[in-house]
Write a structure and sequence with these properties.
The complex is a heterodimer of chains A (454) and B (173). Chain A has 15 helices and 22 strands. Chain A has helices at 9-13, 24-27, 29-38, 165-169, 173-181, 203-210, 216-219, 221-228, 239-250, 254-259, 289-311, 358-371, 379-393, 427-440, 449-453; strands at residues 16-17, 20-22, 45-49, 58-64, 67-73, 79-83, 98-100, 104-105, 112-113, 119-121, 146-150, 153-157, 188-199, 262-266, 270-274, 315-320, 324-327, 332-340, 343-353, 400-402, 411-412, 418-419. In chain A, a hairpin with a 6-residue loop joins strand 8 and strand 9. Chain B has a single domain (6-55, 66-159), classed as Nuclear Transport Factor 2, Chain: A, CATH 3.10.450.50. The longest helix of chain B is centred in the first third of the chain and has 16 residues, at 20-35. The chains are: A alpha+beta (454), B alpha+beta (173). At the A-B interface, strand 13, helix 8, helix 9, strand 19 and helix 12 of A face strand 1, strand 2 and helix 5 of B.
Chain lengths: 454, 173
């Protein structure tokens, strides 16, 4: 292995070339540690949605860069994130995944904190030295320096300084907008539980697969064939119908991916796969009663022109580097949690659109089961791929991995990004590695993309 | 559903036909079909409008408002089983080997739907590619019919770790 390999800027820089990356990027624990501090410790990462903490005192726990955090709505309504550690002896203070509380109390000696992390009370407080100051930041649960909520999506940066959220998200805020705009009442809420899946592989592999239009026809052929052979007159309560339609859609021939689907990328590693589904292909097809009801609700609240604009946003997976992927047509969201260089956990969520027919949410649940479910007929083959990449990289095969597909034919996009000639371009992977270089080489603005492809 | 409610049972004539011993034999037969990879034969145990459900949350009330590790109506269950036979099912290359123990059976009072609710505990060991995984939980079967016509109208599988991060689940529970 390359445990003690050179980590200088120059050495790191050499690992990424325009059309290929060095295998060490996926296997070297030292590089993973650097990624945790330089990417996950600096970038804006998605942690949750405001609907998970509607009321003062509501909180949930999460991890960023493996650090245990509490995200909480204070009595003043502000959202803050705290490092989940007692300032006394270091114990994790909040042990429940989520809840509502007036204060946080450590189970070890009873140190108690306000929701903004300030120390509130200490039992036996006469016994501490004279310079013990309960108002000092040294006796608080430490706040994460930067937290930003954009239309309900909560992001944070563990770094006090750096790129603003607005610069970080750039044009990709339109994907966040799309999720919210699709709600007739203009509000969405997290609902329907969480899937947690895991694999023995690097975190980057997950994001690199989500816009990969060249793999479904091959990787998912068992579910495609099984779905194509399925008789449609067999009993379904609607759940199976959605699943089977999606699996058949995965079986679109290469010509479809090359002629109708597109891939768009933007600075800081973000990208989306577009025009894969439109509403005629969705289960909520134009002549579907549920979709008609939904369409009417949208028109009633937003008007004809705005409804048409919303419906013409046709994005499959939108990936916001380094830890978020979302899909607004079926209200799905995934959060990527790196655990180790060869271990990743992904949490997936569904959103309920306020003002939409109840059946829409039921469709979102059925869709989640087939696309994000741990027992899905589709995702299980993706997980197998991630595991196999780790096993493959455990050999001493090719030193450089290819990410050059479409390299010569990518073109600029009107919003400052770059798009593939068609969806099978690996431009979205190259784009992520441009961001990777930017973060890893200490250029927090990660604007190296055009240098990298120059 | 807690313990036997004899009054509820005696009020349902269909239930009276089922006794613990034949239910146990049926569940052991089902487990054997799964362990031996006879998935078509396993599918044939289900009624035409059957549902097969592995919730994602402890005590999950509905498959429609919350995601499920598996929730198959008959149409999706047929597709799931057909995929298991496909030689290109990469997540089963190599195949899993499984061994299940089904025990602690009890007959439970049913709801409004026909048939007999049978609750049991299971332990399932899955071995694949140098790794052995251990699953445990509760089976809830709703069985209808008798003798050779006995079928599964509903099967619910509550894993003790249903909300844990899990690698892919391919072989049915």
């Amino acid at each position: 292995m390359h445990m003690n390999a050179d980590q200088s800027e120059e050495a790191l820089s050499r690992l990424v070339e325009p059309g290929r990356v060095h295998r060490r990027i996926y296997t070297d624990p030292a590089i993973f540690e650097l990624e945790m501090s330089r990417i996950f410790g600096a970038a804006w990462t998605y942690v949750g949605h405001e609907s998970q903490i509607k009321h003062p005192g509501d909180y949930f726990c999460t991890r960023v860069a493996r650090k245990s955090l509490v995200v909480v709505r204070g009595q003043d309504g502000e959202i803050r994130a705290l490092h989940n550690q007692c300032a006394h002896r270091g114990a994790m203070v909040v042990a429940n995944d989520a809840g509502c509380t007036g204060e946080f109390q450590c189970c070890y000696h009873g140190w108690t904190y306000h929701l903004d992390g300030r120390l509130k009370a200490v039992p036996l407080n006469h016994g501490y030295p004279d310079d013990f100051d309960p108002r000092s930041p040294n006796t608080a649960m430490v706040q994460v320096p930067r937290v930003k909520s954009y239309r309900g999506f909560i992001f944070l940066s563990l770094a006090a300084q750096g790129q603003s959220f607005e610069d970080f998200i750039g044009y990709m805020k339109t994907s966040l907008d799309d999720m919210v705009d699709r709600a007739p009442d203009g509000e969405i809420e997290v609902a329907g539980g969480v899937f947690k899946h895991t694999y023995n592989g690097n975190w980057k592999l997950y994001l690199e697969n989500l816009c990969d239009a060249a793999h479904p026809w091959f990787t998912h052929r068992s579910s495609i064939a099984a779905a194509e052979q399925q008789k449609d007159d067999v009993y379904s309560d609607g759940s199976g119908e959605i699943a089977i339609r999606q699996m058949r859609q995965n079986g679109a021939p290469y010509s479809f991916w090359e002629s109708q689907v597109g891939i768009w990328t933007y600075p800081n590693g973000h990208s989306y796969l577009g025009d894969y589904h439109d509403d005629a292909k969705l289960v909520a097809a134009m002549n579907d009663p549920t979709f008609q009801e939904y369409f009417a609700a949208l028109e009633a609240r937003k008007g004809k022109a705005e409804t048409q604009r919303i419906m013409e946003v046709r994005r499959w997976n939108s990936n916001i580097y380094p830890n978020l992927s979302m899909m607004s047509q079926f209200q799905q969201l995934r959060v990527i949690h790196p655990v180790a260089v060869d271990r990743t956990v992904v949490h997936t969520f569904c959103f309920k659109l306020r003002g939409a027919p109840e059946q829409m949410f039921r469709n979102a649940i059925s869709f989640a089961n087939v696309v994000n479910g741990t027992g899905s007929l589709v995702l299980t083959d993706d997980l197998e791929i991630y595991n196999r990449i780790t096993l493959g990289l455990g050999s001493e095969g090719a030193e450089w991995l290819q990410i050059g597909r479409g390299y010569k034919s990518d073109v600029p996009d009107a919003h400052g990004g770059r798009k593939g000639k068609n969806s099978t371009s690996e431009v979205y992977i190259r784009n992520m590695f441009d961001a990777w270089r930017g973060y890893m080489l200490g250029k927090a603005d990660a604007t190296s993309r055009h240098e990298a492809v120059a | 559903m807690t313990i036997l409610d004899t009054e509820a049972r005696s009020s349902a004539p269909i239930m009276a036909k089922m006794d613990l011993r034949t239910c146990e034999a049926f569940l052991i037969h089902e487990a054997r079909l799964l362990d031996e990879g006879h998935f078509d034969a396993w599918l044939a145990l289900f009624t035409p409008d059957a549902r097969y459900w592995v919730p994602s949350q402890p005590g999950q009330m509905s498959p429609f408002d919350t995601v499920s590790l598996m929730y198959d109506d008959r149409r999706l269950l047929e597709t799931r089983v057909r995929r298991l036979a496909d030689p290109r099912i990469y997540s089963q290359e190599p195949r899993s080997r499984t061994s299940r123990i089904v025990t602690n059976l009890s007959l439970e009072p049913g709801g409004s739907e026909p048939g007999q609710i049978v609750r049991s505990k299971f332990i399932l060991v899955e071995f694949r590619r140098e790794e052995q995984r251990l699953f445990a939980g509760t089976y809830t079967h709703r069985l209808v019919g008798d003798g050779d016509t006995r079928r599964i109208a509903m099967k619910r599988v509550d894993l003790v770790n249903c909300d844990a991060p899990l690698d892919g689940l391919v072989v049915p529970f």
